[in-house]
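SAMPLE LOG
Freezer: B-3
Tube label: C17
Construct: single chain, 332 aa
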Amino acid sequence: MIIKEIKLNKGLIFKKEGLVIISDEGKSEVNIKLDNSVFDIVKNKLQDRIINNINDFEKLCDDLADIDMNIRRQIETGVLNSSNAGWKIINKDAKQIPRPMCLILKKNKGIKEFYLISLNAKNFDGAVSASRDVSSIVEKKLNNIKKDDVDDEDLLDIIKEAIDKVFQDIDFELRICIGYGDSSSDNYLYSNKTLNEQEQLEYVKKLINKYELFYVENPFHEGKFESYIKLTNEMKNKCLICLKSRINEYTESVDKHALNAAVINYDNFKQFNFDVKSFKENNINIIADPDINLINIFVGFNIPIIKFYNDKISEEATEKLINVTASIKEKR
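STRUCTURE (predicted):
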């Protein structure tokens, strides 16, 4: 790929101000504001640049290192997205499309997020569609009911019943995933009970076994390594025990073998590359939040799971991944 032209979009009536990156393989628009001096620096570094593989791209990222981090992040992804298949720059042999983990229910107390994932669905959009069908059934069942007043096991039973109903029309399984979010409380607050650390450990183990949960995110407060270690040691062959760090710091958790999954963040390409290698070397399963600008990176790095929410970003990411899937199949 050759970057042929870099120009500023000054922001017309229907377009935001930003940077336009044009390569011989496509075009991308980056919605960032650049003053003329920064634009000149960026243009000088990008214009006529040849990028054929990950080494070329890393050299480009090194050349952008003295630019503001937020600007650099968007330029990095913008360069990859100026190609019709930017994932090939990272790994031309990439074959794995991330599996969607779809949010179907959200509340504010106890288990805060309920997701579905399929490990054997043959196509991406089929798994997303089935999850949405389950979500619709659950929402109708809970119509006019305050979710935070319902016991979490009752909610899981309702979801399980909805899965059984949808399963009649599909040829793949759906597994339940849950997320606790983060809390400043020392205890764990539910609709009808408050648990201490040990009680929370036993309760999460019970839920994993009873509902065959595939994934549990942030079951304990960040830094509660002893509880994470106990849960992971006992359940790692049944369930992904995941941390989504508020401070994007996983070193101690990985060193202590306190988890077998982590939600990865993208700050810059080199750090992301380092984090992916570190997680994979330690057998940590990687989960990503949806970001249409990062799809090429997720595919190139073989990120196995992407979260999907009921929003426009997830819809755009779904469409992008369907196109990537078609491109990979065509390449074969």
